[in-house]
Amino acid sequence: MLRSIPEHWIERLFSRMASLYGSRFADMWRDGEIDEIKATWREGLAGQSDDALRRGVAALFHEPPYPPTLPRFIELCRPQPAMYQPNRVALTDERRTSPEQAREQLARIREIAGGLLREHGAPAGGGIRWAFRLLQRAQDGEHITAHQIGFAKEAIESYNRTHGQHINGHEREPGSDDE
């Protein structure tokens, strides 16, 4: 069952839009029954989380100078895709690693990368050559983070599940296990 939006919330939303858009907002609903319109908005917004509704209201301050329709307001409630979000300053750990610790960590990363290369072997083709190149760079001593190694390992394992070998050693073709 979808979460119902309280009536007072719709009243507050309409009041906020009236104060933002003035006569344009009133003109938008001039030919309709306002109670019916509010009921439609309550129904249309059912299931939206509190965070989503806050996103929608916050987005009203950055929208064009006309009031949104219900479908447009629902779009405003959706989170912005990560690729379009502005870069945020990240908190970083400013502690310094001693040269001995750094050498130990890099040696461990080289060891992990080398082990993954030996275990999986580099494929002749496929879409994960980047992962093997990354592991090779780490094994050659280039600074590669543990997160990058983790992503490469995950990509290789995922690729091998769908394009690699079966447990019994037979080669697989994508879709070969379809019935």
Notes on the structure:
It contains eight helices and no strands. The protein is an all-alpha fold and 179 residues long. It folds into two domains: 7-81; 99-163, no CATH class. Helix 1 packs across helix 3 (34-44), helix 4 (50-59) crosses helix 5 (70-77) and helix 7 (129-139) packs across helix 8.
Assembly of the depicted chains? single chain
Determine the structural class based on helices, strands and strand pairing. mainly alpha
What does the average pLDDT come to? 81
Secondary-structure element series? HHHHHHHH
Unreliable sequence segments: none
Helix content: 55-70%
Number of helices: 8
How many discrete domains? 2
What is the alpha-carbon Rg in Å?
27 Å
Beginning-to-end CA distance, first to last residue: 37 Å
Strand coverage percent: under 5%
- Overall strand count: 0
Largest sheet: none
Please outline the helices and strands.
Elements: H1 7-21, H2 23-28, H3 34-44, H4 50-59, H5 70-77, H6 99-120, H7 129-139, H8 146-163
